[in-house]
Every structure is written in C-alpha cells, then in structure tokens.
Here is the input.
Amino acid sequence: MTVFDTIVAECSFPAKSSLSIIRLTGKDAFNIFQNIIKRDVSKLEFRKTHYLKLYKDINDLNTIIDHAVVVLYDGKHSFAGEDTVEFYVHGSRVIVNELIETLIHFGARRALGGEFSQKAYLNGKLDLTEAEAINQLINARTSKSKKFALKTLEGDSSKEIKAMKEELNYLTAQIEVDIDYPEYEESIDIVQRIQEVVPPMLNKAKELLKGSRQSTYLFNGIRVVIIGEPNVGKSTLLNKILNQDKAIVTSIPGTTRDIVEGEKEIDGILYKFYDTAGIREEAGEIEKIGIEKTYKVLKDADIILLLIEKGRKIDEEIDNLEVKSLIENKPCLYISTKKDLVGENEYADISISKDDENLDKLYKLIQEKLNIDEYLDTGFASQRDLDILEVFVERLEEIVRDLKDGLTVDVMESGLIEATRCLDQMLGVESTLEDIYSTVFKYFCVGK
Ligand SMILES: Nc1nc2c(ncn2[C@@H]2O[C@H](COP(=O)(O)OP(=O)(O)OP(=O)(O)O)[C@@H](O)[C@H]2O)c(=O)[nH]1
Ligand SMILES: [Mg+2]
Here is the structure.
C-alpha cells in the first residue's frame, strides 16, 4: 500500500439517498474506469458531465451497475492533483457497494480517511494548514466555525505565514551575502535590518497566537463551568440557558451531585455548560464525591461562572469556597442570583433572576471576558498550528533578547533559521539553502 495507489471512496454520506458520489483518484484511474464502460475513455472530455452505463463486466450486458453521471478530471485540475473520475450514482447502498467493489476488482484500493486531502498535499495542491482547514470545514458545527474554516481554506492565514517566511529568508539571505561577499557595495547594516523586521513580526505572531487560542474555541466549543454554594441557583441557571428541564432543581441544598452538562450555540459559537455540585464544607459522603467532580471539571474550564449570594463580597465568597487556586488563572464572572428576592448585588458582575426574560446580557459578558469578537477572525484553529506558533513566538523573543544583549549576527542567524523552520512546519514544507539563495538572487545582483 502506498500513497501513489489509485484509491476509491464514497464522498457523500453513506446512507440511502437520492444520489451518492464516489471518487476514484490516482494514476490508474482512467485505465480502471475503462473496464466498466463501453465508450472509449480517451474520447471523454475532461470536466464535462457524461451520462454513461456502468458495467461490472462490459462483455455481459446483464451486469449493469447503474446509469450514472460521470465527470473526469485530469491531474492538473483535480482536487487531489491526480487523474480522477467522479461518479454520481443513484444512492442505493447496493449500487454504491457494487461500484466500489468493481473498481477495487480492477485495481483500485479503498481510500483511508483523509487520503484524498493527503494526495492533494503531496501533489502541492494544498499546504498543511489548508488541508487541516478542509477537515475543520467538514466538522464545523456552527456558522462561525464554518466561516473560519473557509477563510483558512482560502489561504488567508497561510499567506501571512508565507509573508513572514519570505521576510526571514530575506534577512538570512542578507547575512549570507554579507559573509560571502563582504566587498559587495550595497552591503547594509544587518543588525539594523533585524531590528526593523523581527520586533514587529513578534507582535504579529503574538496576535496570531492569541487569535489561534480563541479560534480553537470555534471547534472545541467554550467550556463554561457554573459553581457556587449549594442552593444558590446553579441548576436553575443551567436549565434556563438550555431552555429545558435538564438538572433537578429543589430547595434542598446539595441537590446536584453529578456534573450536568448541555450545549448551546450563541452567536455562532458552541458553548458547553457544566452545572456542578454546590461546594460546601459540611457535605455528606455522596456530596463530597460530587464536589471532587466539580474541582476536576473546573481545571478544564475556559470560563467560570461563580454564583454568589446577596451581600457577600467576592473575596469572601472565594475564600468560603476554597477554590482560589483553581480559578485564579481563569476568566471568571461573578453572578448574583435570586434578584427577585434580594435585589441587585453591587459586588457582582451581573445580578440575575430565574424570571429574567433572557440572558443576553450574561452572554455578552462571557463574550467580552473571553475577547471573543476581537480575535476570532485571526490565526489558526488546529492544535498543531497552535503548538508550532508558540515555539515560533519563543524563537522571535530570543532574537529580540539577543538584539538587546548586542550579540553577533551569526548567533541571530541561527535563531532566524530556527524561526523559519517553525513556519515551514506549519506549511508542511522544507526551506532549503536553495530557497535562501534564490532569495539572494531575487533581491541582489551579486556577480551579475
Ligand atoms: N425566587 C427565586 N428562587 C430561585 C431563583 N433561582 C433559584 N431559585 C430557587 O432556589 C432553589 C435552589 O435552586 P437550584 O437551582 O437547585 O440551586 P443549586 O445551586 O443548583 O443547588 P445545589 O444543586 O443544591 O447545589 C430552588 O428552590 C429554586 O427554585 C431565583 O432567581 N429566584
Ligand atoms: Mg443544583
């Protein structure tokens, strides 16, 4: 099995439907296809629809698989960058299975998950970031995540990475020229060039990193954990958010013991809300297990809603709940409940009541706390890109430090090369010395 095999798979959802789409891609695609139609494949025009009878065996007229619409793509114009035949057949499972089995019989192999995109990447049709965007697009569950994935697919973010890479290659090229051709009359102050380029690039990279962290929200959802003392109204709030009777609500403190969770889309973003066991000292055995679960789910929270009682100051409330260390580094909103009974609470970010008409104000506060709108349209949403971007920022920070410390250019050159390597990893390419030299020849006229 190799990446060069001709592969086949159903692209549409595998269920009974009016139509199903099957894709055959690889160097033998047209030869394999020739085995199941009577017409001469070489006479079929590319990127035009053809209405054809598909046979299991063209010598036997009784073996028709289906009448289908077929489109052929030459490698240059196909998604995966290799010869492709796309079949639009009637969506019966029998037809789909017969067609795929027949194509396999004539030499194709069943495609693995993501293999068409992998071919597209290997054939230079997509960079890695764009390939990941396809996966994100298919898996997008909200309008905003779809929009973001489309934007990444159009290569907006890759363009920024490529532009930074070009700048770094240019710097490295200038250093190389300076070393190899010290007599070159247009030789410039390299340190000054690094000073001009790297600090602004660091700012840009930090912005991308911030945006990327935000963007992961789009695909993983935002985890909102509701905590507070027993009976404060946590389950009531969850039910109101979800608009359903999900958690049991009673006037008995300690009602909720397990974590109760539910999802809600707000302004195109998926939120996962977690209602927890009320935290208190004098809990019984079962309740204590519930409180342990509360602590666990708190660790993975993106934002915490701390429900508080009227009149108690925030610090007192946190001390009382002994959750200080867990919520210290997380965004947290203080919400006073039962406004209808106790009125507004001056210490809280917002006061709410179960009879409130809607919770829009609370949702706005959550979005503001997480800076949702500010960064949502920048950066990358995959964990892989995020990890590499973090290293990239570190590398640029090192160069900025080296600049301050007055270190030599050759020390900084290795930093620049390492930073470039990060960008290459993101794009899934490898910068070679040739790339750098081609930059030399592009911008300088050395030895002309
Ligand atoms: N009047 C009034 N009562 C409320 C409000 N919110 C909750 N309650 C009542 O307060 C009691 C406790 O509510 P829950 O939502 O079960 O409180 P909880 O924080 O989940 O409690 P535990 O699960 O025990 O930790 C119930 O009797 C609710 O009806 C409110 O805004 N106004
Ligand atoms: Mg509860």
Remarks:
- DSSP finds 17 helices and twelve strands in the chain.
- Residues 80 and 420 are 27 Å apart (CA to CA).
- The chain has a mean pLDDT of 88.
- Residues 222-301+303-369 form a domain with the Rossmann fold fold (CATH 3.40.50.300).
